[in-house]
Amino acid sequence: MFFKKNTYQEVSQGLEKVFPRLWRYCLALTSNTERANDLAQSVCLRALEKAHLFEPGTKFDRWVFRIAQRLWINELRAEAVRKGGGLIAIEEIELPDKKSNQETNLFARQLLLEVMQLPEAQRTTVILVYVEGFSYKEAAKILDIPIGTVMSRLASSRTKLAEKFRDGMDDARDGH
Amino acid sequence: MDTETYTDEILTAYLDHELDLKLSEQIKHAAATDAILAQRIARLNISSDEIGLAMEPLLDLAPSVPELPVDIRAETESLSKSWAQTLKTAAASLIILAVGGVFGFALNEQPEDGWQDYVAAYHLLYVSSTLSNIETDAAVQANELTRVGDALAKPLTLDTLTRFGGLDYKRAQILGYEGKPIAQMTFLSKMGVPIALCIIRSGPGEKEGLLRHMEMEGMASTTWAKDGYEYLLIGGKDRNLIEDAAAAFSRIL
């Protein structure tokens, strides 16, 4: 038997807590809500299958995001490409409109769209570092790349995003 | 330090507070007097907090947490056996498993052992050279898979079996257990370890879903059931390889 620790319950509970964030990361990886659903579900099953490998006391979200990354890159992305069908434009996603300040929403929505339109490698790195708050070192581990690559992806992303919003940021934020 | 030597990557790390204090202070002071450097920093400057806030609405779009399977450990028994038992089972396997398309024996001498135990014991006899010299002509392999798939009433294709990159597909053959055909597909890992994927029609009441990882006859193995068939992937000691390969096969088969 390979089950050495009783981590199944811990992983199961961790998945329930982290699931919305996991799904968002899956959306960043796949650019497609249906594929994000499938990937997130596959990640949950894979995490439970590998529950015996989770080390209590380490960051659960980092562990499960790494599973998502590996599952997508090593196994599912090629299948998705082969099946084709194209990607659903992120613009088509109906975002919930919770905040009353529509002007703030307009800026945030534009920023969200710009982030989601970054190339996959940059997009996922931005999500991990700027949205999920992982350090460069943690993001490098999740993405299985050197820290220098994390830095260059973020530098490129910052350049693109700042350029988009350099003139328009204040206007967008002010709702003009 | 010449401020031109600060790359965009370094300046990004500066903005992200990822630099050590000394270098961060150097850049801060340099930017106070170096307009070009300050301009370069401005060119990279976008609030990461605002990016975080902008992405928050996506959390509300996430579907509900899928129903997670319960812990199957209680259902999974250790299948390790003594060497004597292994030999006994292996010997019985050689009798029961009719290699090459002949199946139909109905031996019930050891009802406590399932088909997977016999397959595991049989696979124990495989060595690298069992498979290393097999002809791997794609047309031959495709025909062989069609024949084996027909016996199982399950389409098997070369494309499916070669999709997982960590294993080199070798051959397919029909084994038999209690009158039921078993499709046995064999592979060599990149390290030359023989791996077998075996499929049999499910018995009634077989639970489908989660992959079960265990050790059988000292070999890493994973079992699962799906769409009316039971599966066993077994071979070697590299449990990560077996788990990853099983995960891939469980999706595509």
Biggest sheet details of chain A = none
Strand count of chain B: 6
Strand order of the largest sheet of chain B: 1-2-3-6-5-4
User: What share of the residues of chain A does DSSP label as strand, in percent?
Assistant: under 5%
Q: How large a portion of the residues of chain B is in β-strands, by DSSP E?
A: 15-25%
In helices, the fraction of residues of chain B equals 40-55%
Relative helix content of chain A: over 70%
Q: Largest interface, per-chain counts?
A: A-B, 60 and 50 residues
> Roughly what is the average pLDDT of chain B, rounded to an integer?
80
Unreliable sequence segments of chain B: 72-84, 98-113
- Assign an overall shape of chain A: globular
Number of helices of chain B: 11
Task: Return Rg of chain B in Å.
Answer: 28 Å
Tell me about the largest β-sheet of chain B: 6 strands, antiparallel
Assembly type of the chains comes to heterodimer
The topology string of helices and strands of chain A comes to HHHHHHHH
Distance between the termini of chain B: 59 Å
Q: What pattern of helices and strands is seen along the backbone of chain B? A: HHHHHHHHHHEEEEEEH
Give me the count of strands of chain A: 0
Summarize the structure.
With 176 residues, chain A is mostly helical. Chain A has eight helices and no strands. Chain A is globular.
Q: Which key features would you list for this structure?
A:
heterodimer; A: 176 residues; mainly alpha; 8 helices; 0% strand; disordered N terminus; B: 253 residues; alpha+beta; 6-stranded antiparallel beta sheet; 11 helices
